[in-house]
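In response to the reviewer comment on reproducibility (Comment 2.3), we provide here a single inverse folding case reported in full, input and output, so that an independent group could reproduce the run without further information from us. The structure tokens appear first.
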């Protein structure tokens, strides 16, 4: 799959504070796929009861599996939105993201993170929405 989408950090803006790009440009000839509500549910449909880091890892694994089903990989991801239910988990999320993205893509996607009051279950600590640019 040709990787023609552009991810960049404009020199005129501050350097990103973690593993993310500030901008992504989707080139002509691509379709947009949206992966919504990706959480730490295992292959048996059970919510992981683990630590925040374990939930992030399983969520990333689930996104990777979903990307493969689309014929895509993390280099095709142009935007991610992470939802955290506890503010104190944000520094750990940055660490996990900083370890993860360099292992799966050349340039991390544009990202934003939000601290929210809750997800669909109280034991769900993290959710990820992903925008993917698929070549036609």
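Designed residues, in position order:
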């Amino acid at each position: 799959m040709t990787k023609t989408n552009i991810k960049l950090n404009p020199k005129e803006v501050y350097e990103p504070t973690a593993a993310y790009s500030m901008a992504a440009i989707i080139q002509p000839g691509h379709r947009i796929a949206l992966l919504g509500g990706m959480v730490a549910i295992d292959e048996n449909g059970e919510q992981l009861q683990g630590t925040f880091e374990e939930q992030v890892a399983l969520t990333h694994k689930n996104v990777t599996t979903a990307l493969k089903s689309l014929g895509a990989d993390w280099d095709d991801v142009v935007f991610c939105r992470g939802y955290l239910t506890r503010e104190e988990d944000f520094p750990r999320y940055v660490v996990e993201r900083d370890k993860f993205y360099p292992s799966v893509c050349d340039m991390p996607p544009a990202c934003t993170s939000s601290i929210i009051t809750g997800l669909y279950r109280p034991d769900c600590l993290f959710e990820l929405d992903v925008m993917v640019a698929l070549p036609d």
